[in-house]
Specification:
By secondary structure, this protein is α+β, with helices and mostly antiparallel strands. The protein folds into two domains: about 150 residues, Bordetella uptake gene, domain 1 (D-Maltodextrin-Binding Protein, domain 2), CATH 3.40.190.150; about 110 residues, D-Maltodextrin-Binding Protein, domain 2, CATH 3.40.190.10. The protein contains ten helices and eight strands. Strands 1, 2, 3, 4, 5, 6, 7 and 8 form an eight-stranded mixed β-sheet that branches.
């Protein structure tokens, strides 16, 4: 999130001729920053770098989330997209997704699944996988994706559904075994890893998005100006190189197209969170 904001912000500064200041406001599962951004004057001078977490997951989990993800924000553009990859500790055994599913069905609750915490994207993607495959994994929540990833590599936990951008380098080093990616087609940075669809699990297409949103009430002409500047910024050579190094795909959609992405993702996680009774600590 922070890297994407800084890379795109620097490029948008050149396009707009005005500096974009990146301000991180952490706390309360992202609520502090979200509330500050979306309760700012709707004049185009304050934007939020949103994601699945702040636009479709958190609003379903936190009853007091500061805005409605469909009525309380104005989409500007979807900047970047990256799929998830199912990775296991190297010595777990299964070398394919079907082998892992078979093992999980033999030992319900016997395989451990790390996540960055209850209600995080890692957790929800893992729950979605279990619902589709009829498997049962033992969820092990951590305080952040970093510790979860480290414990999978150390062999303390069996598997993790992680963003490709986080795991790619460790996969290349042989510290993690990748089994499948959640994109429609094979991901360029992991070209030898099959998709979930190729591996026999249909309907498992999930991408983590990162995009700009403005407070509700921001004038359409300002949203159009910002969207055009962001799309133009994605063409910058420095942005393309940075995204390529992270294994991230540049998108640059229209505000309407980004709203549909948010709407679809919100619906998916709303149903899963309700059916599974997922709550945060």
């Amino acid at each position: 999130m922070d890297v994407t904001a800084r890379v795109v912000g620097a490029a948008m500064t050149k396009v707009l001729g005005q500096p974009l200041v990146i301000e991180n406001r952490v706390g309360a599962g992202g609520k502090v920053g979200a509330e500050a951004a979306m309760k700012s004057p709707p004049d185009g001078y304050t934007l939020m770098m949103g994601s699945n977490s702040s636009l479709s997951v958190a609003p379903n989990i936190y009853k007091d989330w500061p805005y409605d993800p469909l009525q309380g924000v104005i989409p500007v553009t979807n900047l970047a997209s990256v799929p998830f990859v199912l990775v296991t500790r190297p010595n777990l055994g299964p070398r394919s997704l079907q082998e892992l599913i078979a093992l999980a069905r033999q030992k319900p609750g016997g395989l451990t699944m790390a996540s960055a915490g209850n209600g995080t994207s890692n957790h929800l993607v893992g729950e979605f996988f279990q619902a589709l495959t009829g498997t049962q994994l033992l969820h092990v929540p951590y305080k952040g994706a970093g510790p979860a990833l480290q414990d999978v590599m150390a062999g303390r936990v069996d598997l993790l559904f992680d963003q490709v951008s986080s795991s790619s380098s460790f996969i290349e080093q042989g510290k993690l075994t990748p089994l499948a990616v959640s994109s429609v087609q094979r991901w360029p940075s992991l070209a030898t890893v099959p998709t979930f669809g190729e591996s026999g699990v249909s309907g498992f297409v999930i991408q983590n998005f990162t995009g700009l949103v403005a407070p509700a009430g921001t004038p359409p002409e300002i949203v159009a100006l910002l969207s055009k500047a962001a799309v133009e910024a994605l063409k910058d050579e420095s942005v393309r190189k940075s995204f390529a190094s992270m294994g991230v795909e540049a998108v640059g959609s229209s505000p309407a197209a980004f709203m549909q992405v948010i709407r679809d993702d919100l619906q998916r996680w709303s149903a899963l969170i309700r059916d599974k009774g997922i709550k945060v600590d």
